[in-house]
Specification:
Largest sheet of chain B: 2 strands, antiparallel
CATH class of chain B: Alpha Beta
Number of helices of chain B: 2
Structural class of chain A: alpha+beta
Shape of chain B: globular
CATH superfamily of chain A: Cytochrome P450
Structural class of chain B: alpha+beta
Order of helices and strands of chain A: HEHEEHEHHHHEHHHHHHHHEEEEHHEE
Helix content of chain A: 40-55%
CATH topology of chain B: Alpha-Beta Plaits
CATH architecture of chain B: 2-Layer Sandwich
Largest sheet of chain A: 6 strands, mixed
Strand content of chain B: 15-25%
Strand order of the largest sheet of chain B: 1-4
Number of strands of chain B: 4
Oligomer: heterodimer
Number of helices of chain A: 17
Bound molecules: protoporphyrin IX containing FE, iron/sulfur cluster
Number of strands of chain A: 11
CATH topology of chain A: Cytochrome p450
Chain lengths: 412, 64
Amino acid sequence: MAEAETGLAPDEQVYFYQDDRDAECPFAPPPGLRALHDKAPVSRARIWDGSTPWLVTGHAAQRAILSDPRVSSNDKQAGFPYPNHVMAEGAPHHPLTIFNADGADHTRIRRMMTRPFTRPRMEALRPQIQQFTDELIDQMLAGPKPADLVTAVSLPLPSLMICALLGVPYADHDFFQEHAQWATRSDKTVEQQNAANAALGGYLANLLQKKMEEPAEDVLSDFAARIKDGDLNLPEAVMLSMILLIAGHETSSSMITLGTALLLDNPGQLANLREIDDTKAVANAVEEILRYLTVPQLGQRRIAAEDFEFEGVEIKAGDGIIAALPAGNWDPEAFPDPEKLDLTRKASHHVAFGWGIHQCLGQQLARIELQVVYGTLYRRVPTLRLAVDRDELDFRPADALAFGISELPVTW
Amino acid sequence: MKVVVDEEKCVAAGQCVNAAMDVFDQRDEDGIVVVLDEHPPAELADDVRNAAAICPALAIRIEE
Ligand code: HEM
Ligand code: SF4
């Protein structure tokens, strides 16, 4: 890339975002990324396509940039720092969604989706999530040892939870779960994902029509009422439902798998968690584990809409910007001794759910799910342990959208 | 201490309710923030400051 384009001297060493995690500390952000943050909260970095967007690594700087109205999420603009070639090729065909809309468009779309996510409505789902969790653990305990925690709990629970949220009837759970897993797992082929998406789309369209006649207290009934009022049409309502399914799946699933692996690696902290009988303390532990692992490892992607000065650098309109969330959550200024897992730490200012107007819409649901799982699994299975050595675990590579482990063999 | 919120900015993330349940709530119809207690008592002051600090949309202002 020419000097004029990047503003960098040709021989200048530029960090490649992002380097691999250290096999000795597989849960920590990559060492190169942490070293970069030690130098400056904002710097140029090279990404997969050779371009050099701004990489924001500091916690305060990430909060500032992600809430700055001069920064856009519009992924159709030249210079947008796509996470991979699939996204780069797909972006021109992306419809306007909650993810890539800015300003007034974003407000309009987001407000169409917020009603089901208020805390009281989320809390009302807690007993169902508890029941699903108990049943999945029962099934695991009744099966052979060792078991794979990913197939036993981490994958089915988020799809069952989305069933509860959307209002999918119990009889259809198996169909929904199976297709949801195919549609959302990044280790499936594009053809497999498309087929599963089509099946789910058809299913959801049918169910939305049923909910127009017989509404209940769930998201699909909510969208159905909006179709009746003329705020949405059927394909739009199907798309919103699919967005909820996809956005909430792999992230929550990884938090169950990785969180368990992390806790088994920190037996003292795990013992404390098992003893805790206070929902507030469990909720605090969830925040710390969200911070520590920062599953959305590829960071939030943006593009500058105008020229401005930021943290001592000159950002130009059209420059790509990436907020590398794992680095922000390990910024010692915001979280002293970040490498220390401390379930009693005050961590609620973490950026694992992003920051600014796009901060995760499903965060209250994700929190309840994790509070239930972390509060139940280790208590019901106190002898839970890895069935292989930690170095044998297959951690996802640094360029996967979500940090995770593909299989977690456990025994008890 | 006086709590002022900007409904236009609020993105209904619910962080404020997590931080200070006795002071913030969310509207049933769209999750937008509602202030339950504009002049919270001193013992809630820290929670309220924390709520303002973790509101992702910078929708909460505190007049000391
Ligand atoms: C632990 C689990 C989760 C994590 C770590 C997570 C993380 C995130 C992050 C970092 C963003 C910001 C995207 C951006 O800045 O562009 C986001 C947005 C979003 N999340 Fe989550 N999420 C989780 C679970 C969920 C669940 C369960 C749902 C829904 C059922 C959900 C729905 C959404 C939606 C709709 C957005 C887009 C919001 C917007 O652009 O205004 N997420 N999430
Ligand atoms: S934390 Fe901020 S954005 Fe979220 S509900 Fe409260 S005021 Fe609204």
